[in-house]
Structure formats: C-alpha cells, structure tokens
Amino acid sequence: METVRRILLFLFLFYKAFGQQYSVSIWGFHAADVNLIGDSTSIDFQTQNRGIFDMIWPTNNQYMTTFDQKDLSIQSWEKNIRQGSYKETLSGTVDPEGYITYSNNDKIKIPNNTYTIFTLLEMVRTHDKEQLDTKWFDYEHEGSLGRARFIWADSSNKWNGEDSILCDHYRFDIDIMDSTRYIKTNDHFMNNIIATETTRELWVTRSKTKKIMLAKVTVGPIPVWARIQIDK
User: Fold this and answer.
1) Which of 153, 147, 143 shows the shortest CA–CA distance to 176?
2) Of 174, 177, 212, 229, which has fewest CB within 10 angstroms of its CB?
3) Each residue of 69-114: pLDDT tens digit?
C-alpha cells in the first residue's frame, strides 16, 4: 500500500492543462480525480482520492505554484495537505536577493533560475527535447537543494484511449545534494519523489500543444505503470 501511495501522489503531477479534470487509475481501479488550473505563470493542482483508495487512505491535497513567465524558475509555492486526520500547510516565496523564505521562517539561499518538481513538469510540457536532454537544472525541494534533468530515451507511439500518439520518452532524474535544511512533513509525495530508490519516466506528446501522457514510477524493485485518462 505504501508503494501505491507514492505512485498515486507522483502521478497527480504529471498532466498539466488549463482548466481541465482528469481521472487517475491504478491497476484498472479509479484512484483519484485531479483538477488542474493553470496559466503562463502559475499551476494549481487539486487532487482527491476516489473509490477504494479514498476508503483506505482519504486524501484531498492542493499544490499551488507561481513561476517566471520566461524561464519558469520558481517564484512561490504553497501546499495544503489533507490526508485522513493529518492536515498541514506550508508555503515559500523567493525574494529579490535569491532567498526562499518558508512559512516556518526558514530562509534558504538558492541559485538563480532554480526549479521545483512543479516548474520542471511545466518545462517538459513546453520545451523540445533539444532544449532539455541531459541538461542539469538547479533544483529546490522544501529546503533541500540539488539538481534535476530529463534524459531523452526514445520516441515511440503510446495509446491515449482514443488514438496512438507519438511521444518523446524521458527519464526524469532528481539528485539531492544538500538535505540539511529539508522541511519534512507527512506529505507522502514530497517525501518519496526524491528518494534515491525512486525512478521516474515520462512520455510527452510531440504535438504542438504538448501533454504528459504517460508516467512510470518504480519504487525499489516494484515497477508500476499508470496512465492518466482524460475525463473532460
């Protein structure tokens, strides 16, 4: 069940579109509904478990991010976590001096043009592989600092439920180099997405308006596939 939790929360973040709803399924079971609202400078993810997943592990989380319109670097973000009886809110804002200040008063110096999990997913959705492949980007994760990159593996067709779509396939690496200031909460996604035993893969459509169509997460020795299916 812990593996399912990690995968489910990871997949909440893999499909960005303006004002649309999605259904997440795992092993053929309806696992969650996702509301995504975005524009050229922000992303708002609202997620809620459904069906048996909601019975076992009720979750209603929201992640809000603002970023620079030109380079997509982080400007601010906030999360509101509701996992059963557990409730948590955390936010951070980047100031002109290059520090990110969190709501718990932690203040951390970050490099110019630093990215997070949310802004990097926006990057892979809006950039071509020539702009991404093997390039390291400075990365910040709730106080931890490191780097992240997309490695292009191949181009292949994937089924979206209606048609076979040509996609670019990437491995998504996250390398945490300094976790001394990590602000740890019981948010399973944020805790586990950066774990050393987690591998991440994405399939992004090659159409003019790109979409992240498929994700694969492997936690330890257990590989699990899940497809985000469009509801509306």
Assistant:
1) 147
2) 177
3) 999 999 999 999 999 899 999 999 999 999 999 998 889 999 999 9
- d(Cα 49, Cα 125) in Å, to the nearest integer? 25
pLDDT per residue over 148-198, tens digit each? 999 999 999 988 778 899 999 999 999 999 999 999 888 877 887 898 888
Report the distance separating Cα 60 and Cα 34, nearest Å.
10
Give me the helices (H) in 35-164, please.
51-56, 117-126, 129-132
Distance, CA of 16 to CA of 120 (rounded, Å): 11
45: number of CA atoms within 13 Å, CB side? 22
pTM over 0.70: yes
Output the furthest CA–CA distance in the chain (Å, rounded): 49
Domain interval for residue 70: 2-230
13-90-135-11 Cα dihedral, nearest 10 degrees: -10
